[in-house]
Amino acid sequence: GLFSLTLDSLVYSLQFFAEIKPSNSMEYIAAAVVIVGIWIGSWFLLKRDTNFAKPLHILLGGVLIFGLVGADSAVGAGMRGHYFRPAPVGATFESAINKSGFAARADGKRHLVLIMVESLGMPKDNQAMSDKLFAYYNDSMIKARYEVSQGSSLYYNSTTSGEVRELCGRWGDYYELLETDDPKVLDCLPAQLAKKGYATQAMHSFKAPFFKRATWYPKIGFQKREFAADLEQRGAEWCGGVFAGACDRHVPKMLAENLKQAKQPTFQYWLTLNTHLPVPTEQNLDTGNCEKVSVALARDYPMICRQFSIFDDIDKALIAEITASDFPEADILLVGDHMPPFFDRHHRSQFDPERVPWLYLKAKNSQPKG
After folding, report:
1. Average of pLDDT values for 252-265?
2. Cα–Cα distances in Å, from 220 out to 37, 61, 169, 209, 364?
3. How far, in Å, CA of 267 to CA of 198, rounded?
4. Is 279 a member of any domain?
5. Does residue 201 register a pLDDT over 90?
6. Strand partners, 148
7. Residue 279 is part of which domain span?
8. Nearest alpha carbon to residue 229 among 244, 215, 211, 249
9. Domain holding 129: CATH number?
10. Which H helix or E strand runs over 363?
């Protein structure tokens, strides 16, 4: 449920389970301990006489069970969000690509950079989070070089659905891309830009086989792909977590290198990784001292604070590259894939359950592309 897997998706995804490391998360370890405790307790308790002495006790037990389930469902109804849901038939389509006008800038005069940020949700009635979101881009060096705009977009389902939303301009998931050779279905933004003479490159900080991105990325038009092993070979450090891979904070330098070395206009896509839940306190993620990010978030929402610590590192590393004098002209769009699927209401209720934020940096001046 947390990772939006239907029964079919769960069975299909069993092949990927060897790629993740639940033992890197104290939350998963604690859950495992609780489950084992329930098994042990059940083994002994179920040996006891389980017959109710009176029919009234059966009725009371049923009322308590269904009453608690109903109350839990009612309380959580407003914060489940679209992370669990496919788009309904006829749902109005939205994407950051469309709303920002990003794709319309593909005239061969500049590079285009799309960054999908794992679990970047839209703050809801939380001033500390709203103040932190995209705060580093309110900078004189950024504003001197880019027109800055931001907004929010509707989302449905999980990360791969977010990728299909932004890259292919429709609601859907990656299964349909694996199972078809229909050029209409595969005519996504990378393929469209390749037809216009753009080099198309994708980067992802996790492993290539996961969700078969190594298979469907080229099908939708990505000519070059770099995954965790490639990024680490280029100098990225390893960062831990349940989804351990390359450290996102080291990728902006490589992204910039790709564009500086480009011989033609380039579409560079990057899907980040390290803010995938649950976010541990260390494992080279620079999340151990969260008070430096926000005292309020560290006190009241520690895992959100750890996420923002990683967002901060990504933003600072990216800004250092895109404001450098030798960084070629490029439009840059950052967008979240889905709200972070926190299990507890305390954290989950801090996010808009239906929308994700985006930030668009539109290049002002004409500069050499490579």
Report:
1. 97
2. 47, 54, 12, 16, 30
3. 6
4. yes
5. yes
6. 361
7. 82-363
8. 244
9. 3.40.720.10
10. strand 355-363
192 with 221: CB under 8 angstroms?
Answer: yes
For residue 237, the 8-state DSSP code is P
User: What average pLDDT does the segment 13-32 reach?
Assistant: 71
Q: Between helices 302-322 and 251-260, what is the axis angle to 10°?
A: 20
CA distance 104 to 165: 17
pLDDT at 31 over 70: yes
| Nearest one of 320, 327, 198 to 259, comparing CA atoms | 327
Alpha-carbon span 268 to 272, nearest angstrom: 13
Q: Which amino acid, 49?
A: D
**Is 25 within the bounds of a domain?**
no
Averaged pLDDT score across all residues of the chain: 90
Q: Which two tokens stand for residue 347?
A: 């954290």
Q: Which among 241, 271, 242 is positioned nearest to 255, based on CA atoms?
A: 271
User: How large is the average pLDDT for residues 108-132?
Assistant: 96
Contact indicator for 316, 134 with CB cutoff of 8 Å: no
> What whole-number distance in Å separates Cα of residue 73 and Cα of residue 68?
8
CA atoms within 13 A on the CB side of 105: 26
Gap between the Cα atoms of 302 and 309, Å rounded: 10
> Into how many domains does the chain fold?
1
pLDDT tier at 124, thresholds 50, 70, 90: very high
Instruction: Confirm whether 71 is domain-assigned.
Output: no
pLDDT of residue 368: 42
Q: Which residue has the tokens 């390749």?
A: 194
- Does residue 222 contact residue 202 with C-beta atoms inside 8 Å? yes
Phi and psi angles of residue 202, each rounded to the nearest 5 degrees, phi first? -125, 140
**Residue 2 domain-assigned (yes or no):** no
Tell the burial category of 142 from Cβ atoms under 10 Å away from its Cβ (0-12, 13-18, 19+).
middle
As a whole-number percent, the residues of the chain with pLDDT over 90 amount to 69
